[in-house]
């Protein structure tokens, strides 16, 4: 068997190139896909307070799943809806103290 392989090489010659699909070929080319299969480990916070680890397409630290308000008690629903409404901001305006006296500069206007 060894002799047949050796004779086969001699007959084909050293110019016969064999393309092998291995890791070295991947260095020369790129992935021909529009979406890459890379998934990132992400922690998901569930509404009941539990957390699990999943694989997600975007690198994020934490994903929080929203709470279903239909399953809450009326008091809890009211409390959560009040937290969602924007709070009124107090606009503080400073009173500027005006001590400018025009008569002190009238001699410059003449």
Describe this structure in words.
The chain has 110 residues and is of the alpha+beta class. The protein has a domain at 35-66. Helix content is 29%, strand content 14%. The protein has four helices and three strands. It has helices spanning 2-12, 23-28, 74-84, 106-109, and strands spanning 40-45, 51-56, 62-64. The chain has a three-stranded mixed β-sheet with strand order 2-1-3, with no helix packed on it. The longest helix has 11 residues, at 2-12. It is flat and about 100 Å long. The termini are far apart. The model has no long low-confidence stretch (mean pLDDT 77).
Q: What is the topology?
A:
Elements: H1 2-12, H2 23-28, E1 40-45, E2 51-56, E3 62-64, H3 74-84, H4 106-109
Parallel strand pairs: 1-3
Antiparallel strand pairs: 1-2
- Contiguous low-pLDDT stretches (5 residues minimum) are none
How far the N terminus sits from the C terminus, by CA atoms, comes to: 118 Å
The largest pleated sheet is described as: 3 strands, mixed
DSSP, total strands: 3
Our Rg estimate from Cα atoms comes to: 38 Å
How are the strands of the largest sheet arranged? Answer: 2-1-3
Strand proportion, as a percent range, falls in 5-15%
User: Tally the helices: what do you get?
Assistant: 4
C-alpha geometry? flat
Share in helix? 25-40%
* Helix/strand class: alpha+beta
The pLDDT mean sits at: 77
Helix and strand element order = HHEEEHH
């Amino acid at each position: 068997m060894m002799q047949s392989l050796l004779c086969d090489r001699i007959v084909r010659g050293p110019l016969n190139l064999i393309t092998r699909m291995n890791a070295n070929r991947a260095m020369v080319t790129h992935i021909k896909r529009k979406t890459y299969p890379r998934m990132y480990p992400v922690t998901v916070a569930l509404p009941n307070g539990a957390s699990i680890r999943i694989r997600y397409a975007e690198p994020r630290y934490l994903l929080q799943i929203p709470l279903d308000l239909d399953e809450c008690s009326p008091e809890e629903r009211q409390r959560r809806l009040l937290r969602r409404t924007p709070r009124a901001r107090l606009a503080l305006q400073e009173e500027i103290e005006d001590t400018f006296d025009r008569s002190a500069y009238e001699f410059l206007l003449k």
